[in-house]
Design a protein that fits this description.
Blueprint: H1 5-9, H2 18-21, E1 30-31, E2 37-40, E3 43-47, H3 60-73, H4 89-102, E4 106-110, H5 113-124, E5 130-134, H6 139-147, E6 151-155, H7 160-177, E7 181-186, H8 198-203, E8 211-215, H9 230-234, E9 242-246, E10 256-260, H10 262-271, H11 273-276, H12 283-298, H13 300-319, E11 332-337, H14 340-353, E12 356-357, E13 359-361, E14 370-375, H15 383-401
Parallel strand pairs: 3-12, 5-6, 5-7, 7-8, 8-9
Antiparallel strand pairs: 1-2, 2-3, 4-10, 9-10, 11-14, 13-14
């Protein structure tokens, strides 16, 4: 059998909707300057789908540093992996500042967040070690767990009683195998917006022996008094063994880091395959990240502005009776009932007739019969943007409840050839 033959009949859970979705619902083209308003298929839309939390992506100071760094260094330097020929003083300086910011001894710079997380798990856990992880963990965590050749246990999302049960199982098994235990959770869960119960999880260290890895991609820069992330928000920075963050959200860039004790950091430097066998983060991006981190640390007005918009949007939606689930972060999911065609028609109505672009989440990401309109507030948005969105959401919800979206026929093919 030709290994490609199966793809003609089955494109995968999301790929099966490709012909109806590509170029519009999936792989859409947002064009123009990164801002609260951008162009979509020739029309201006109010955009709630960018993780540019602090609005740094197009900030004039950031753009100038990016441009100057690219002009000075190009996009190739340094050539090669960090271990071989890709090390610079700027890379080391960024690591030092990141570690200091999140309250750790050291940090290791990663060229990509997703592959970094996969590789951290691979480097830390051997076949005799046991992984215990949250059921709603991000895909990068799940992929890392899948690579693990040993045993793993999952606990229902944020269920501390069940986590204790899984730790008991893990402790017995690890004891027999002479292995260790790694618990993995998130600081801010990117789909639901709620926080991992870091304060309760670290208390379990009094009962069990384990190390804790926290994916704080959405918390870094947005949570905590200084923006150092969810561990700072909970006051447990010293209890987090591996603090992982990315530049793709609040830092509006590419790359990531893991912060931890110095000896563990050096172990990761010499054992993370995704870094040993991949090119170093280009100098222009490192210099740009240093500028972004400086602004994040010294300009609290960006985070304050973000939370002004977050509070206004979430308060307004709740007052109108919308279900935002468990969110207590900038991530704003709006839960509604409906099927995939209804969801598609509603989102199309929002984009074409209300000028609002937000992400739609449907099965198989969430259960059938449910849908989420996921909004990402940023410091670029205004209170007027919030008011426009609240009015639009009230109207489209009324149409959804009146079954008006079930009577609209979605375009059969949206692919732009």
């Amino acid at each position: 059998m030709d290994i490609f033959a199966k793809f003609k009949k089955d494109q995968g859970d999301l790929g099966n909707f490709m012909k109806q979705a590509h170029g519009y619902f999936s792989f859409p083209k947002l064009e123009g300057e990164i801002n609260a308003r951008m162009q979509f298929r020739g029309k201006e839309v109010l955009t709630w789908s960018l993780n540019n939390y602090l609005g740094l992506a197009n900030h004039p100071e950031v753009r100038k540093v990016d441009a100057d760094a690219a002009a000075k260094w190009g996009l190739a330097y340094p050539m090669g992996a960090r271990m071989m020929s890709g090390q610079t003083k700027k890379h080391e300086e960024l690591e030092r500042q990141l570690a200091e910011f999140v309250g750790k001894e050291d940090a290791f710079l990663l060229n990509y967040g997703y592959q970094g997380m996969v590789s951290i798990i691979d480097a830390i856990c051997g076949r005799n070690d046991v992984i215990v992880y949250d059921s709603e963990a991000h895909a990068c965590i799940l992929d890392g767990v899948r690579l693990h050749m040993g045993k793993r246990f999952v606990f229902p999302h944020n269920n501390i009683d069940n986590l204790r049960k899984q730790l008991k199982r893990a402790t017995r098994l690890a004891g027999k195998q002479k292995g260790g235990i790694l618990v993995i959770t998130e600081g801010v869960f990117g789909m639901s917006g709620d926080l991992g119960k870091l304060d309760e999880i670290v208390k379990l260290k009094d009962e069990f022996e384990f190390r804790l890895l926290v994916d704080d991609a959405h918390g870094f820069g947005t949570m905590g008094e200084t923006g150092a992330g969810a561990p700072e928000y909970f006051g447990v920075q010293d209890k987090i063994d591996l603090h992982f963050g990315t530049f793709a959200k609040a830092m509006a860039g590419i790359g990531g880091f893991v912060a931890c004790d110095t000896d563990i950091c050096y172990y990761l430097r010499y054992n993370m395959r995704s870094q040993t066998y991949a090119k170093s983060l280009p100098m222009a991006m490192v210099v740009g990240a240093l500028k972004r981190l400086e602004m994040l640390r010294t300009r609290p007005e960006f985070k304050n502005r973000l939370w002004l918009i977050v509070d206004a949007l979430q308060k307004g939606l709740k007052e109108e009776g919308f279900d935002l689930g468990r969110t207590n972060s900038p991530v704003t999911p709006v839960y509604l009932k409906g099927n995939i065609p209804e969801a598609g028609n509603m989102v199309k109505d929002l984009r074409e007739n209300y000028g609002i672009f937000c992400s739609m989440v449907v099965y198989p990401v969430i259960p059938k019969g449910e849908l989420i309109l996921r909004l990402i507030p940023t410091a670029m948005h205004t209170l007027e943007d919030v008011n426009i969105t609240l009015r639009a959401f009230k109207e489209v919800r009324a149409k959804l409840e009146a079954n008006k979206y079930s009577k609209i026929e979605m375009p059969k093919v949206l692919i732009e050839m």
